[in-house]
Amino acid sequence: MTDGTNRRRRERDRMVEHQIAARGVRDPRVLDAMRQVPREAFVPDDLAAQAYDDSPLPIPGGQTISQPYIVALMAEAAAILPDDRVLDVGTGSGYAAAVLSLLAEDVYSIERDPDLAATARERLARLSCINVTVRHGDGGHGWPEAAPFDAILAAAATPAVPPELCRQLATGGRLVSPVGDASREQRLLRIVRTGDTDYEEEDLGPVTFVPLVAGALPPGS
Questions:
Q1: Is the dihedral of CA 106, 112, 114, 120 positive or negative?
Q2: Of 19, 28, 55, 179, which sits with the fewest C-beta atoms within 10 Å of its C-beta?
Q3: From CA 137, how far away is CA 156, in angstroms rounded?
Q4: How many CB atoms lie within 10 A of CB 108?
């Protein structure tokens, strides 16, 4: 390893210890995935030095790459198993999809911004995340033809969870999503499908996400 590679690995280890494990994330598979994925590969070059800061960072298209702790918290809440199929709503730079690729068998990631989708696809390919499929489309519609999913994670907030996403959960499947808008506090919710039309909901606490932009796009392309 080069000195730069060793430095980045130490930064990731410190990030996991101080920003994630110290704040209550305990799933060893999630912690290991967070140690493995190079966050600097998913931020603009001029922000690489801030890649392991405890904060979201701006990316093109007016979007952000989520705070590392939030990525880990959502992944743990989704309780992802090695043979699970996962839907990632809001690919962004691709960082969360890369983390999920180490936890699940298959990851389907959908992004509204065509340029972000293309760039994320290239980054994930460079890192050999061969079990991630990225496409451009309206995340509010989910990915019907790939459903049902064992877990769905949304990286953008909606006033209410889109019913289409709930319907795309397998029985026993978990949906983790921020809910709220500019007029009220956003909350991170975990919704578990317990039957054909039955769901259980748990509030995981306050969060801040960009809004999910839906409509005016086909489900995917």
A1: negative
A2: 28
A3: 14
A4: 26
What is the number of alpha carbons within 13 Å of residue 24 lying toward its C-beta? 5
pLDDT of 35-82, one tens digit each?
999 999 999 999 999 999 999 999 998 889 999 999 999 999 999 999
Contact between residue 99 and residue 33 where contact means Cβ atoms under 8 Å apart: yes
Residue 146 tokens read as 């790939």
Segment 97-145, tens digit of pLDDT: 999 999 999 999 999 999 999 999 999 999 999 999 999 999 989 999 9
In order, the DSSP letters of the chain are --HHHHHHHHHHHHIIIIIIGGGT---HHHHHHHHHS-GGGGS-GGGGGGTTSSS-EEETTTEEEPPHHHHHHHHHHTT--TT-EEEEE--TTSHHHHHHHTTSSEEEEEESSHHHHHHHHHHHHHTT-TTEEEEES-GGG--GGG--EEEEEESSBBSS--HHHHHTEEEEEEEEEEEEETTEEEEEEEEEE-SSS-EEEEEEEEE--PBPP-SSS-S--
Residue of 161, 171, 173, 172 lying closest to 196 (CA atoms): 171
Q: pLDDT digits over 83-96, tens only?
A: 999 999 999 999 99
Q: Which residues pair with 151 in a beta bridge?
A: 86, 174
- Catalytic residue positions, numbered: 66
